[in-house]
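Running co-folding for adenosine-5'-diphosphate.
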Amino acid sequence: MVEAKNLCMKYDKGKHNAIENISFSIGRAEFVFFVGSSGAGKSTILRLIIREVKPNDGSLKVFGRDVARLPRHRLPYLRRNIGMVFQDFRLMEERSVYDNVAFAMVVIGSSRKEIRRRVPHVLSLVGLKDKAKSKIMDLSGGEQQRVGLARAIANRPAMIIADEPTGNLDQGTALDIMNLLRSINLRGTTVLVATHNREIVERFKKRVLYLDNGKLVGDEQKGIYTNVH
Ligand code: ADP
């Protein structure tokens, strides 16, 4: 699903490489944590995968295609296959739960019939069937992130990318969200999570890629956060 070889990336204004000679390979239906302190390069890797930024050197293949060479008109196809989940949720606060999820499907041209069938289904997967009509601003943080997950899976992406998805949540709620991500993964979706949450990484015992100063310093199956920190 993702194959990085000697990947390097430097921001225009950056002094050093934000990503320095990184190689890894992530297969179908894997669950992978990216960990490392602030500025280690976690977000940059995720941004490279969705081609928000381009590598300066090395190669990065996503779904078998070299993202650096992807023509602009192919970007929507790449991105519709990747569901994004954000620390700050990025929902339409004044709109309903239903509308927030439906909008993601409208954008890619789903039929009204498909939307009417799919939205209640994904809302029930994240435990929000009864909140379809609620406004986002009336929900708790945990409920809002559930909407974020429902939106991310609405278009049946092959991969979910979550950048600090639990950064704004208390630990109990964070665990609920991670359990949902795990159940999405068990249904066959590849899940990549950048996180600072040590307890969650230790508890979930999934593959961990450790970043430090732009370098990949560890890649462990069933890793524990404390290997590096
Ligand atoms: P993390 O997600 O692990 O906190 P980032 O990928 O955001 O790390 O940052 C990696 C490095 O790239 C850091 O040194 C950071 O300062 C730098 N960086 C991130 N975004 C930009 C940007 N837009 N312009 C210049 N430098 C950036």
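Result summary
The radius of gyration is 17 Å.
The chain has a mean pLDDT of 95.
Job closed.
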